[in-house]
Amino acid sequence: MAFDSTTEPTVFHAAFREQFETFLDEHRTALHDTLNGLTEEQARRSLVTSKTTLLGLVKHATFVEKVWFDEAITCRPRSEIGIPETPDESFDLHDDDTIASVQHAYREACAASRRATAELTLDDLAHGNRRGSLPLRWIYLHLLREVAQHCGHADILREQVLDAPARPR
């Protein structure tokens, strides 16, 4: 579709929204799929000094979805949503975190995000973020940037995990 000065603003906004959602969903899928074919040990393997692991990245992305599409839109506190208070804590892995459980939680969070924004426009404000009120457009751009960045981290970690010999127990 070509856009010019006669294009209806609603058509213009709908096209932008579709682009945001398409790119965001592509990156969500790419991040989710970085865990495919790995063992539980590989997914948990720590290769950097931070808490960042492949499993932790996807778990963190679940937190991010809930911060931006639950907390920011519904104004519910993190304690009610059931997420950590800080991004750093969202990388913490527990004994019951598995590839299957973390991927499932991420898919569920992404689906909930889509439902939460279904009736909103790009100019609608989310009032529950700690930075203050922000338009949905800003949230989409921020999330696209963050998920894309984490996809890059995950690509590198996955390459290292698959090339590294298993650690002796």
Would you mind describing this structure in some detail?
- The structure is a single chain.
- The chain is mainly alpha-helical.
- It has six helices and two strands, in the order αααααββα.
- A two-stranded antiparallel ribbon has the order 1-2.
- The radius of gyration is 18 Å and the shape is globular.
- The mean pLDDT is 92.
Summarize the structure.
The chain has 169 residues and is mainly α.
H-E string: HHHHHEEH
Low-confidence stretches: none
Tell me the CATH topology.
Four Helix Bundle (Hemerythrin (Met), subunit A)
Largest sheet: 2 strands, antiparallel
Overall strand count: 2
Percent in strands: under 5%
Question: Mean pLDDT score, rounded?
Answer: 92
* Termini gap: 58 Å
Tally of separate helices: 6
CATH H-level superfamily title: dinb family like domain
Number of domain units: 1
What is the level-2 CATH architecture name? Up-down Bundle
Helix content: 55-70%
Please give the order of strands in the largest beta sheet: 1-2
Please identify the top-level CATH class. Answer: Mainly Alpha
Structural class: mainly alpha
**Morphology:** globular
Highlighted features:
single chain, 169 residues, mainly alpha, Four Helix Bundle (Hemerythrin (Met), subunit A)
Record the SSE blueprint.
Layout lengths: L8 H25 L6 H5 L9 H21 L3 H4 L17 H19 L7 E2 L7 E2 H28 L6
Antiparallel strand pairs: 1-2
Helix pairs in contact: 1-5, 1-6, 3-5, 3-6
